[in-house]
Amino acid sequence: QVQLQESGPGLVKPSETLSLTCTVSGGSISSYYWSWIRQPPGKGLEWIGYIYYSGSTNYNPSLKSRVTISVDTSKNQFSLKLSSVTAADTAVYYCARDARLEAAGTKHNWFDPWGQGTLVTVSS
Amino acid sequence: QSVLTQPPSASGTPGQRVTISCSGSSSNIGSNTVNWYQQLPGTAPKLLIYSNNQRPSGVPDRFSGSKSGTSASLAISGLQSEDEADYYCAAWDDSLNGQGVFGGGTKLTVL
């Protein structure tokens, strides 16, 4: 079955850019949407954004000015860049397949499966 | 401040039935479907319920979901100790350009 694995630096300095990659195995990245979600220590989940395999994206309005999500179908990977990070960006970052469809004007979307998550700490 | 509102905690004894509520608005739960995720300590969230009331393969039928208007509920019957976890509701919100939104999470304790 499809498995996802996040990778990237675990420590990023304030004002720098956080960069993570999610590698999809056991299936093709094509024909699906893919999302990034984060969870600050001891807090709840926050959706960051999604990318379709074709490259179209949608971002959380609160992060939109700092986020870029890209896809590399040849490597079955998609990536996250978050610029100008502060301590508030310290979190476990998850990647997930984003299943979505629309029926009779109602949007269905769910995240499954998820990667195991990677902790990124913003500190000098 | 989460867009969807959940109680921070819930509890029950083994064998009991517990419910967790999730309240939203017309732009999210009122317009789109609700999903529920279970997060066991130290692990990634796992899909528990999708499209309001559908269970993925492998999820016991002790877990059920429902939606009415701008609110949704997760019910767990025959509570077991391994159900102790954080539970999150989620939906798509049509405001602005559309975004995924979560509840703040409910910590379920099995007494």
How far apart, in Å, are the first and last alpha carbons of chain A? 39 Å
Structural class of chain A: mainly beta
Total strand segments of chain B: 9
Q: State the oligomer.
A: heterodimer
Q: Describe the biggest sheet of chain A?
A: 7 strands, mixed
The succession of helices and strands of chain A, N to C, reads: EEEEEEEEEEE
Shape of chain A: globular
Order of SSEs of chain B, N→C?
EEEEEEEEE
Indicate the structural class of chain B.
mainly beta
Mean pLDDT of chain B: 97
Largest sheet of chain B: 6 strands, mixed
Continuous helix count of chain A: 0
| Poorly predicted spans of chain A | none
Let me know the average pLDDT of chain A: 96
Helix content of chain A: under 10%
Q: How would you sum up this structure in a few lines?
A:
Chain A is mostly beta strands.
